[in-house]
Specification:
Low-confidence stretches: none
Family: Belongs to the GIPC family.
Distance between the termini: 18 Å
CATH architecture: Roll
Number of domains: 1
Number of helices: 1
Domain PDZ: 36-116
Order of helices and strands: EEEEEEEHE
Strand content: 35-45%
CATH class: Mainly Beta
Shape: elongated
Protein name: GIPC1 isoform 11
CATH topology: Pdz3 Domain
Radius of gyration: 15 Å
Pfam families: GIPC1_GH1, PDZ
Number of strands: 8
CATH superfamily: PDZ domain
């Protein structure tokens, strides 16, 4: 799904970018469990920041404390966003996914299809 630089943890601030030094370690995070989550959009802002890996996969980078998404414990930082209401997001950039989430009407329920990074043994 994505790689982090110098940490085995799912730290979206450490996503592998263009600069790798000779002393750096690269950790690959592979697909784990898939999940489908119903979300009621009670606020205009859901309280999440999205990033992408430049290869067509968008991920949850941050979740704002106390936000709509923060209250849904099945959703975590590092989850790949596969679909919204059945619409595939594979191949989309982070700003396209953010726009689609923002355009969802307030006061309605929508479905997120997510894949979490596989947990270490």
């Amino acid at each position: 799904m994505f790689c982090t630089l110098n940490t085995h943890k799912v730290d979206m601030d450490k996503l592998l970018g263009g600069q790798i030094g000779l002393e750096d370690f690269i950790f690959a995070h592979v697909k784990g469990q898939r999940k489908e989550v119903e979300v009621f959009k009670s606020e205009d802002a859901l309280g999440l920041t999205i990033t992408d890996n430049g290869a067509g996969y968008a991920f949850i980078k941050r979740i704002k404390e106390g936000s709509v998404i923060d209250h849904i414990h099945l959703i975590s930082v590092g989850d790949m966003i596969e679909a919204i209401n059945g619409q595939s997001l594979l191949g989309c950039r982070h700003y396209e996914v953010a726009r689609l989430l923002k355009e969802l009407p307030r006061g309605r329920t929508f479905t997120l299809k997510l894949t979490e990074p596989r947990k270490a043994f």
